[in-house]
Amino acid sequence: MIDTRQSGTKLTTSALICISFVLALMLVSCTSDAQLIREANEAAASSNAPLKPTPTLTPTPTVHQSLQLQESERKSMFEVRDGDCLKMSMPEIGKAENTTIVDCNGSWDGRVINSFVIEANGIYPGNAFFEQQAMDKCDRHSSYLFTPTEESWSSKDRTVTCLQESYGLETTQLDKLDRMVDPSTLMEGECFNEVPISQGMMVELVNCLGNWDFRVVNTFKLADGPFPGGTYIDRQVDNRCQRETNYIFAPVVETWAVGDRFVTCIQER
Question: What does the DSSP assignment read for the chain?
């Protein structure tokens, strides 16, 4: 049983004053801290300004570049296997020729990452269709496609080959090539460094426990339909990106047309 009777010990007036002073200090301190927090919360709630800047990083997500081969070379592509390295020339945009399989330990222009077969018949669907398929089916390391030509399509050619660019790196830097990925495929928690302009649209993944320039905070997918425009995407970013976000990768008109729907929320170190 707890004894609730008053103790016979009496507190002196000076002791009471000291206790009152200490309690008053504690109350003032708590009140001040609470008020500061309250004021900060009220200011944040009443502000119409975005909580974070969200400029779109350059480069924006890439569209795979389709490379058309001459008919004779296109037929020889059936002999190419995943992992093969190729030497080729590109006399003009979208054209490749003099394509030969070479040793991956030497100099090469493209490496076959994977390939897939189009399950479609009918008229030739065109490059935009192949690029849209590649968004889902090509490995994230690839940046080029070998696609059927109109002539080969009529001969039942349905194979799309996904190629990784060499970026001019030496064969001693193959580990770096394995870290180069399409930015539209970045996943939550991955870290990467800026990529020089000469290395196109890809980014280099790095260990988040070491030195990094950017970290993926979270990602989300936009609904299908016509391209919604920058204002709509900005609103979605404000609502769905985490607070530490200060950069984004977002679809643009060109990437939207071939199936890109993902927004990547990024923190700069």
Answer: ----SPPS----HHHHHHHHHHHHHHHHHHHHHHHHHHHHHHHHHH--S-SS--PBPSSPPPPPEEEEE-HHHHHHGGG--TT-EEEEE-SSTTEEEEEEEE-TTS--SEEEEEEEE----SS---HHHHHHHHHHHS-TT--EEE---HHHHHTT--EEEEEEE-TT--GGGHHHHTTEE-GGG--TT-EEE---GGGTT-EEEE-TTS--SEEEEEEEEPPSSS---HHHHHHHHHHHS-TT--EEE---HHHHTTT--EEEEEEE-
